[in-house]
Amino acid sequence: MMVGWFAFSAACLLASWWVSRRRMNLADTPRSRCAAVFVGFNEITGAVGSVQATPAWFTGTLSAWWRSTLEEEREYTRIETTTDAQGNSHTQTVTERRFVTVESLGSAMLIRLEDDTGRVLVDMTRAHMSVPSTYSDTTREPKWTAPQRSIFTATTGRYRQREWTLVDGQQLYVVGHARIDDTGSDVVVDGGEGEFLVTTKTEGTVTAGRRVGTWFLIVAGIVASGAGAAAAHGPPWVVALSAVGAAVLVVAWGTFELYNRLVRIKQLQERAWSLIDVQLARRSALVPEMVEAVKGYAAHEASLQQALAAGRATPAADLLALREAYPQLKADTAYQRLFDELSSTEHRIAGAREYYNDAVTILRDRTSTFPGILLAGRARVGTFGSRELIVAGREEQARPTVSLD
Fold this sequence. Notes:
By secondary structure, this protein is an alpha+beta fold.
C-alpha cells in the first residue's frame, strides 16, 4: 500500500509538470496574424473558411469540416471482490453499459483560417480537436447507409449518433507548428512536432483549465505522499515531513521551470525582432521591381508617366495607391503579381510588429511581477526587458525609397 501511494504521488507530480508546461507554452507564445504566420510554432485566432464546403452526414449542414460517428451500446460484466473491516471477502457481479464507436465518416481535414490581414491553411489531420458536438441522438434505428453488424454479442440494440461541425465564420483558436507546403507558395499549419490544438474555446479558457488541472495534481501528489508515509505506520512527524518534502520538491521544480520559462520568452522576443527584419528586407527587394513594372506600363500611358515623374521617390504605400488611381494597371500581369506580393508583405510587416510587441509585453509582465521578478536578473532578461515597443510611425519611417528617374 505504501509503495502504491508513493507511486501515485510521483505520477501526479509528473503529470502536473506536463500540464503546467503545456499551459505556459500557450500563455507565453505571442499571437500571430493569419497573413504573418511563420515557419515554426504559432498561436492563431481567426474565422473558419471553407476550402471545399460539404454537407454533414446527419444534419446536412454545409460545413468547412465535419465528423459523424455511430456508436453501439454494449454491456460489460466483471467480477469484483472486496474485503470488509472484519477481513471477510465478498464477491459480486457488476454489469455496466457504455457506447463504443463502430462507424465514422468525415470531410477533408483542410480548412482556412481568416482574419482582417489574410488567411492561412490549416491541415487538421494530426490535430487534437476540441469542438462541441452539434448533434447527438440515441436510437434503435440509426441513420446510416449500412451499419456494420457487431460481432459483439452483449449489445443492447441501441445506437448513439453524434456529429461535430465547423462552419464558415466560426471562431477558432489554433496552436501548432507551420511549414511551407509542397508547392513552396503557401504556409500550412499542420502541427509538425509538439502540441497541435484546434478548438472553439478561447485562449483564456484553455489556459485556465490547465491551471486548475496543474494545482489539482500538485495537491493530490502532496496528499498522496503523506498518505504513503501514514500507510507505513510512521509517527505523525514522519507523515508531515513526507508532505513537506513533496511541497519543497514542487517549489524547487517550479523555480527551475520559471528560470527556463523566462529564457524561452527572451528568445521569443529576439526571434520576433528578426521576423521584422526579414519582412523589411523582403519589401526592400520588391519595391524596385514594382517600380520598374509601373515605369514599363507608364511608357504607354502619359498621365501615369506624369504622376510618377511628379515625385523623386515613392514609398511602398504610394505604389499600392497607384493601383486604385489607375485601374488599367490591374490588367498588367507583372504589376498584379508584384502588387499582390507587396500587399502581402505589408500585412506581414504589420503582423510581425504585433507579434514583436506581444512578445515584449509578455516578457515585461513576467519579469515585473512575482515570482518572475526574483529571477529576472539571473535569467539575464532585465526587469522590464531589453527592448522597447514599436510605436506607430516607426515602421513607416523605415520604408525604402526608390528613384523613378
